[in-house]
Amino acid sequence: MKAGTDSARRTNQARQRKQTNVSRPRILVIEDDAYAREALTLLLDYYGYDVVAASNGNDGLALVTEEAPDLVVTDWRMPGLSGLALCVALRERRDTMPIVVVTSADEVFSSDQPVNARLRKPIDPPLLNRVISDELRSQR
């Protein structure tokens, strides 16, 4: 009985979140590390965003279609779809949607890569919030 109750509670919470978060910008977090994904999700929720998350690039691409996020925050190095391939695919689906890359990799980013902002891990929470706010504001 408890499992059914928990499932119903999660469904009701999801419904309520969709109804109450109409005006909250939706952020898609794509991060393969479960702890980092959960931390980003909680942080962005704390900052007032409606957050959906995926554990890999392919699932993230599916959520772009299903959830219509306003912005994507993604890791750069993940198993499977690389960060660059993911960002190219995101641009093909929604060319004006801002993409913020967070990475601990010592990558050299060129100006022609399809990302709006790049941040190094560990993430500075106020800086991440400021970058996201600026990117969302520039889309209006």
Structure summary:
49% of the residues lie in helices and 17% in strands.
Would you mind describing this structure in some detail?
The protein has helices at residues 2-20, 34-46, 57-67, 83-93, 125-139; strands at residues 26-30, 50-54, 71-75, 99-103, 117-120. 49% of the residues lie in helices and 17% in strands. Helix 4 links the parallel strand 3 and strand 4. The chain is globular, with a radius of gyration of 15 Å. The protein has a single domain, classed as Response regulator (Rossmann fold), CATH 3.40.50.2300. Helix 3 runs parallel beside helix 4 (83-93). Residues 3-13 have low confidence and may be disordered. The chain has a five-stranded parallel sheet, with helices on both faces. By secondary structure, the chain is α/β, with parallel strands linked by helices. It is built from five helices and five strands, in the order H-E-H-E-H-E-H-E-E-H.
